[in-house]
Inverse folding.
């Protein structure tokens, strides 16, 4: 490919990449979360009876350089009873000052982790019927609470 063809193609690719987050943000209508910046993509698994509500967050890729997240929130239920909830992933605070980011890029990331389980069928039996954990299973990165 010669230089006369390469230059306009390169410019077109740069313009598409540079304007994609703006276009996506204007058209976005997905669910939000206190754990992840941006909007997620909703998936519903199951139907009547048991089901899982799943929201996947990819805003770290959709808003390059800015605040974003990569992770998921899942909530499993039976009927009207919530049984298990899991939020897990990584939140990114954006690049920020270039010198600070280049000297320690991991300082701008934090782990998102929150898990709870509730077994309502054992609530009146005296047996421990619920469990919660928000301690990160990953060491070395800050944990973001939801």
């Amino acid at each position: 490919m010669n230089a006369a063809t390469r230059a306009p193609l390169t410019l077109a690719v740069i313009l598409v990449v540079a304007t994609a987050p703006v276009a996506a943000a204007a058209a976005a209508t997905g669910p939000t979360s206190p754990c992840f910046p941006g909007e997620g993509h909703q998936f519903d698994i199951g139907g009547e009876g048991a089901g899982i509500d799943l929201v996947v967050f990819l805003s770290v890729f959709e808003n390059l350089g800015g605040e974003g997240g990569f992770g998921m929130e899942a909530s499993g239920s039976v009927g009207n009873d919530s049984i298990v909830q899991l939020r897990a992933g990584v939140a990114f605070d954006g690049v920020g000052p270039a010198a600070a980011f280049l000297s320690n890029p991991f300082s701008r990331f934090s782990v998102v982790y929150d898990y709870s389980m509730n077994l309502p069928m054992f609530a009146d039996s005296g047996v421990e019927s619920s469990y919660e954990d928000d301690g990160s299973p990953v060491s070395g990165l800050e944990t973001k609470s939801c």
